[in-house]
Automatic annotation (TrEMBL):
Compartmental location: Cell membrane
Pfam families for the chain: BPD_transp_1
Name of the featured protein: Carbohydrate ABC transporter permease
Family: Belongs to the binding-protein-dependent transport system permease family.
Chief localisation class: membrane
PANTHER family per record: ABC TRANSPORTER PERMEASE PROTEIN MG189-RELATED, ABC TRANSPORTER PERMEASE PROTEIN MG189-RELATED-RELATED
TM ranges: 43-68, 108-131, 143-162, 182-198, 235-257, 277-300
GO biological process, any: transmembrane transport
CDD domains with a match to the protein in the record: TM_PBP2
Native organism: Streptomyces liangshanensis
Membrane topology, record value: Multi-pass membrane protein
Keyword Thylakoid part of the UniProt annotation: no
GO CC, alphabetical: plasma membrane
Length: 315
């Protein structure tokens, strides 16, 4: 029995437009493409977008501007009401006075030494521990990791007294680490968050990469040094930023460790030396103390963004 084929259906303009559209998931946006196609829609969109961006810029940068210009004002102008938006006379004398009177070079150098040591030790020990827990699979590894992560649930203030007693009289060797950079470095090594961040990144690296290195004759340490570390540059950059900023802005622990004024970091020295200093000089010292962290962010901002996004991708 012969079947008669149905007549071909006429192709409508909508079908032709649908065929020309690229295949892919539909993207939902706050503003429809149809609204942006009109001149009025584009004008409203760019007006709102520009206003929001300017509002955010003003909210974040105005405090910085107020701090920088506040150091250029006289003490009387700083406390007058209503405050002045621009200094009546721009003067950099407060910056030079703070540099000399508060001995900022010494305290900045102390902070650099303390932050650098804590950063290097964290990279060495946290990376080694994360590699062991992630790839070497030691006995009771999950129990050890659970115990390390449990320390994140303990408030940092609750650990201050035990840490101080430990640093004041180090067990077994009975040595005091007070007024010593080791009193900052050693407690900073025990950073559960950075260790977990590195472990999660190592977990995403395919096992095939390590097996290929083993076939080529690479040992465990050579695999870590030549394979994993070059692949981990983004997350190592993020861990470095966290380690440096944590030590740079810490106040309570350095205050307890360093009773010697000449060995105190900048965060403690600003408070200890601010008793007989004018307000404009103190603000100038705060501006100088914040410059290294701002420069570090501007230089390594790409690495920070890359490291944050690296933790969300699968290997």
């Amino acid at each position: 029995m012969t079947q008669i084929a149905p007549p071909p259906r006429e192709v409508s303009p909508d079908d032709l437009a649908a065929r020309k559209r690229p295949a892919g998931p539909a993207v939902r946006t706050l503003v429809s493409p149809l609204a942006l196609a009109s001149a009025k829609g584009r004008a409203v969109y760019w007006t709102v977008f520009t206003g929001v961006v300017l509002a955010f810029v003003l909210a974040f940068l105005f405090p910085v501007y107020w701090m920088v210009t506040g150091a250029m004002k006289s003490p009387d102008e700083l406390v007058q009401t209503p405050p002045t938006l621009f200094p009546k006379s721009f003067s950099l004398g407060a910056y030079t006075d703070s540099w000399e009177l508060m001995d900022l070079p010494t305290h900045l150098w102390n902070t650099v030494v303390q932050a650098s040591g804590a950063w290097i030790l964290q990279l060495v020990f946290c990376t080694a521990a994360a590699y062991a827990l992630s790839k070497l699979k030691p006995a009771f590894g999950k129990v050890i990791l659970g115990g390390i992560l449990a320390t994140l649930m303990v408030p940092a203030q609750a650990l201050v007294v035990p840490k101080y007693l430990t640093v004041a009289d180090l067990p077994l060797i009975h040595t005091s680490l007070l007024n010593d950079p080791l009193g900052i470095w050693l407690p900073a090594v025990a950073n559960a968050f950075n260790l977990y961040l590195l472990k999660r990144f190592f977990d995403q690296i395919p096992r095939d990469v390590l097996e290929a290195a083993e076939i080529d004759g690479a040992g465990k340490l050579r695999t870590l040094w030549s394979i994993l570390l070059p692949m981990s540059r983004p997350v190592l950059g993020v861990v470095s930023i966290f380690a440096l900023v944590a030590v740079w802005q810490d106040f309570l622990w350095p205050l307890m460790v360093f009773s010697d004024t000449d060995k105190q970091p900048i965060s403690v020295a600003l408070v200890q030396l601010s008793q007989n200093i004018s307000l404009s000089v103190l603000i100038a010292a705060m501006v100088i103390a914040s410059i290294p962290m701002v420069l570090m962010f501007l230089v390594f901002q790409r690495h920070i963004i890359a490291g944050i996004s690296a933790g969300s991708t699968k290997g």
